[in-house]
Design a protein that fits this description.
The chain has about 500 residues and is mainly beta. About 0% of the residues lie in helices and about 50% in strands. It has four domains: about 170 residues, Jelly Rolls (Sandwich), CATH 2.60.120.200; about 70 residues, Immunoglobulins (Immunoglobulin-like); about 150 residues, Jelly Rolls (Sandwich), CATH 2.60.120; about 70 residues, Sandwich (Immunoglobulin-like).
């Protein structure tokens, strides 16, 4: 599980690399005992390094924490950081835990964790990692195999031209010891609760959870933390109580954010978000379906004002609204603006979806699989109104210039309700077997076609008082055509046979 921790180490102007001389030691591990190395004293006492090039391991001192860092490497360099020798002949089992960060500018480096039972033994790999993440700290834990009286653990860094590898919170714990909890996670997050979990070794009697500075002792894990505040950032950490006065070290902290409470929407008070209030989403969730990138706020870099932006380097991501109670809305409607510019002949896809509750599956309202170079306003009637309604914008990248969303509004529709009395519309032929011509008394506007369930299926601009609509590819039945101009809207029923 990942936690925010080492980001400041890579960007701080106050960092210092300490080259140190290591001494070799033999450290006994007994039942109930832990050996912990957090490098906070600025040394690597009892650790050794074997390097093939300029890249090496050293202590990096930061303003918040110290770490062992693999740095100054060129592509192809390798350096193995070797732990002290552990005499574990007196224990039946032992565990290993540590945290790590890997950052890359170009190709990802590789970190391999291994063990050997003696200096004469070869190294045996436990696991390897190759990631690029400038934001988060990762944790790993293992049951150590083949324990012996001259046991060592190593971290082999191989440079592929990356940047830094950080290592911290190294811990070896003997059987019956009180190991520091790792792999913290927060799941099933709602507006008022979150299910908090962490690793266990089986000999804990209880745990202390500290959430935003408030401690609580619990006897089960995972633990459902309740009575939280909506749309609030929380940080929690855990330590174990193993009885007999034995307590573990505190875990690394993990952060999570509770969801928004239900937003009530009425005819007089629609929901509206133009993304101007913050450079982070407020009451929206970014769910990355594929790839590493999702939705973000573009704070006016690419547009005159803030917009929601799906960056073209992403693969697929879904932007999900807060739950909306739209049961009091007469004719619920979604309106929004979007752009999907083409780049070198490619464009993204956008699917507008809804669900009636978090437990419901997503249903498609409309899709835009073509370039949209200019800001375009879409209007979609919302079916199946509920008290926990959610809107989603699902973007898929094909190498275009991204997807932009702005001015999202959910409220009462003008569909058949607020008609412009001065707007005159004629639709011919009606009934039709496919194509219709719309004639109006306004020179410019828009004609939008909805099916019987309120799904928008077509949209055409009115030019010189006329628009052509082709329903040939759609099933026979009843359709509604909304004609918009600056003065309002007029709705006409069209029958296709």
């Amino acid at each position: 599980m990942k936690k925010n921790l080492f980001k400041t180490l890579a960007i701080s102007a106050f960092l210092m690399i300490n080259a140190v001389t290591f001494a070799q030691c033999v450290i006994p591990i007994t039942n109930g005992q832990s050996y912990i190395e957090d490098f906070d004293d600025g040394t690597m006492e009892c650790w050794t390094v074997e390097a093939t090039g300029a890249g090496t391991w050293a202590v990096m001192t930061g303003t918040q924490t110290n770490v062992a860092a693999f740095q100054n490497a060129e592509a192809g360099d390798e350096a193995r950081l070797i732990s002290p020798t552990f005499d574990m002949s007196g224990v039946g089992s032992a565990t290993l835990g540590f945290s790590y960060v890997m950052m890359a500018l170009y190709n990802n480096d590789v970190l391999t964790v291994s063990y050997r039972t003696s200096e004469a033994d070869s190294w045996h790999d436990l696991d390897s990692y190759s990631i690029n993440d400038w934001q988060n700290t990762y944790e790993a834990s293992f049951d150590l195999p083949d324990i012996s009286d001259s046991y060592q653990i190593s971290f082999l860094a191989h440079s592929n031209g990356g940047y830094y590898i950080f290592l911290d919170n190294f811990e070896v714990t003997g059987e019956g010891g009180c190991a520091r909890p790792v792999s913290l996670q927060a799941t099933e997050i709602t507006a008022f609760s979150a299910l908090l979990g962490w690793s266990t070794t089986g000999n804990e009697e209880s745990w202390v959870i500290e959430t935003n500075g408030v401690e609580k002792t619990v006897e089960t894990q995972p633990y459902l933390m309740e009575n939280l505040e909506p749309q609030t950032d929380y940080s929690f950490r855990v330590k174990a109580n193993c009885g007999g006065g034995m307590e573990s070290e505190w875990s690394l902290p993990m952060t999570f954010k509770t969801l928004c409470d239900v937003i009530f929407v009425t005819d007089d008070e629609p929901y509206f978000d133009d993304f101007e209030s913050s450079e982070e989403f407020v009451c929206w969730q970014d769910e990355i379906t594929a790839g590493e990138f999702g939705w973000a706020i573009d704070p006016g870099y690419l547009n005159p004002n803030n917009t929601a932006n799906f960056f073209s380097m992403g693969v697929e991501a879904l932007l999900i609204s807060a739950p909306l109670d739209i049961t009091a809305v007469t004719n619920p409607t979604l309106e929004f603006k979007h752009r999907q510019p083409m780049f070198q002949g490619y464009n993204e896809e956008l699917y507008v979806v809804y669900r009636t509750s978090p437990d419901d599956s997503w249903h498609v309202l409309a899709s835009y699989q073509y370039p949209v170079d200019e800001w375009t306003t879409e209007t979609i009637a919302l079916p199946e109104a509920s008290a926990t309604y959610q809107i989603g914008f699902d973007a898929l990248s094909h190498g275009g210039d991204g997807v932009y969303i702005d001015d999202v509004r959910v409220g009462n529709s003008t569909l058949g309700i607020l008609e412009a009395t001065s707007l005159s519309v004629a639709v011919l032929p009606n009934p039709t077997n496919g194509k219709i011509t719309i004639n109006t008394n306004v020179s410019t506007g828009k004609a939008v076609v909805f099916d019987l369930v309120g799904k928008q299926i077509l949209s055409e601009n009115i030019v010189d008082g006329q628009a052509e609509i082709d329903l040939s590819g759609y099933a026979d039945g009843v359709y509604f055509v909304n004609i918009y101009d600056d003065g309002g809207v007029k709705t006409v029923k069209v029958v296709k046979r």
